[in-house]
Amino acid sequence: MTTATKVPVKPLGDRIVVQPLEAEQTTASGLVIPDTAKEKPQEGRVLAVGPGNWDEDGEKRIPLDVSEGDIVLYSKYGGTEVKYNGEEYLVLSARDVLAIIEK
């Protein structure tokens, strides 16, 4: 597993910062997919994780299920796209993460 890159954006609460992974450039049969026909990626690498939300009593934080370096699947239209220092990131709520991909 590769380590996550240090990102200058620190998420708050139950938010995470994800760098979307590029979609496949060709089909299984070898056809090249043009940019206009590509689907929005739903897979990305977690670069930063917020501290989690407070419990109902407000006494302790509830940790998130994901950690830096994880590859995750997320909701197609979830999160907010952010461009910072020429890099594109996606800031998601932990609710928008559907699964962790184990490779």
UniProtKB/TrEMBL annotation:
Record-linked Pfam families: Cpn10 (PF00166)
Main location: cytoplasm
An annotated Gene Ontology molecular function: protein folding chaperone
Stated name of the protein: Co-chaperonin GroES
Function: Together with the chaperonin GroEL, plays an essential role in assisting protein folding. The GroEL-GroES system forms a nano-cage that allows encapsulation of the non-native substrate proteins and provides a physical environment optimized to promote and accelerate protein folding. GroES binds to the apical surface of the GroEL ring, thereby capping the opening of the GroEL channel.
Superkingdom of origin: Bacteria
GO CC terms: cytoplasm
HAMAP family in alphabetical order: CH10
Subunit structure: Heptamer of 7 subunits arranged in a ring. Interacts with the chaperonin GroEL.
Lineage of the species this protein comes from: Bacteria, Bacillati, Actinomycetota, Actinomycetes, Streptosporangiales
Subcellular location, record wording: Cytoplasm
Similarity annotation: Belongs to the GroES chaperonin family.
Species of origin: Nonomuraea wenchangensis
Annotated keywords: Chaperone, Cytoplasm
